[in-house]
Amino acid sequence: MRLMQDNDPLLDNIINTTLQMAFSSSIIAFLFGTLIGLLVAFNDFPGKRIVVTFMRTLMGLPPVVAGIIVYVLFSGTGPFGNLRLIYSVKLMIIAQVVLITPIVAGMTETAISPIVKNALPSLKGMGANPFKRVFLIIGESKYQLIAVYLFAFARAISEVGAVQIVGGNILYKTRVMTTAIALNYNTGDFSMAIALGFILLMISLCVNCVAALLQFGLKRRKHA
After folding, report:
1. 10-residue mean pLDDT series, the chain (224 residues)
2. DSSP string over 164-205
3. Which among 220, 41, 65, 47 has a CA at the least distance from the CA of 137?
4. Where are the beta strands (DSSP E) in 90-129?
5. Are 120 and 157 in contact, with CB atoms under 8 Å apart?
6. Quick one: pLDDT at residue 195?
7. Other C-beta atoms within 10 Å of 192: how many?
8. Closest to 67 (Cα-Cα) out of 163, 160, 177
9. Is residue 26 a contact partner of residue 100, using CB atoms and an 8 Å limit?
10. Helix (H, G, I), strand (E, B) or coil at 122
11. Could you tell me if 21 and 96 are in contact, meaning their C-beta atoms sit under 8 angstroms apart?
12. d(Cα 75, Cα 83) in Å, to the nearest integer?
């Protein structure tokens, strides 16, 4: 608490960089991943099981592997090196999106598929057009999708390996709370590492409370 009351500019920068990276990457990954998950869940096509298996395999992609892949692509000798994004928050967000999108896609497909299987025949029988079918099924699965986003945000804000590789943990530029915790632990400053961990936990708690209030509001509206 004393760290937050002192208005330390370094701590403020670390928290702001963490929030920017976590919210940006989790929202982008959620949008892309949900779209992929919905497309797979709504459609039957040859090789669907292979696609689902591949998605679920990528859900376990090691963060350091994702970081190395992005680093190679955007380094000076990589195909996207001319963008000069290496060791920047933007590239940290890209690495997080690469890591989290398959997780969101797999979780969305798993959550939506049973709902599609049960509701789609009835919707077709009612003559609902494809867009209305998608809209109605998303409405039925809104609680699951909120849970998926919370998991995506939790993964984004707690990540260390990928962001450290592509961001470099540069002071006042790309240092986030998890890399700062790891650095303070390695240098023996356990009190700072614990304090940062506590702040990180409080941020996650606040996001979960907002999501819980949103779910409660949706339930009240549904039963009203």
Report:
1. 64 91 96 94 89 92 94 92 94 96 94 85 75 83 89 92 93 92 86 85 88 75 63
2. HHHHTT-TTTT--HHHHHHHHHHTT-HHHHHHHHHHHHHHHH
3. 41
4. none
5. no
6. 83
7. 17
8. 163
9. yes
10. helix
11. yes
12. 9
Separation between Cα atoms, residue 63 and residue 96, nearest integer Å: 9
95's CB contacts (< 8 A; 6+ apart) are 66, 67, 70, 162, 163, 165, 166
pLDDT of residue 107: 94
Distance, CA of 191 to chain centre: 28
Question: What type of residue is 212?
Answer: A
User: Tokens standing for 96?
Assistant: 């997080």
**Pair of tokens at residue 160:** 């260390």
75 and 85 Cβ atoms separated by less than 8 Å: no
Would you state the structure tokens that stand for residue 98, as one six-digit string? 């690469």
- Which amino acid would we find at residue 9? P
In the chain, the amino acid numbered 116 is: V
Q: Say which amino acid occupies 1.
A: M
Please identify which residue in the block is written with the tokens 């998991």: 151
Q: Which residue, chain included where needed, has tokens 């356990």?
A: 190
Measured CA to CA, the distance from residue 97 to residue 99 in angstroms comes to: 5
Q: How far apart are CA 97 and CA 156, in angstroms?
A: 9
Measured CA angle at 62 (ends 20, 204), to 5 deg? 35
Flag whether the pTM goes above 0.90: no
Q: How far apart are CA 214 and CA 224, in angstroms?
A: 15
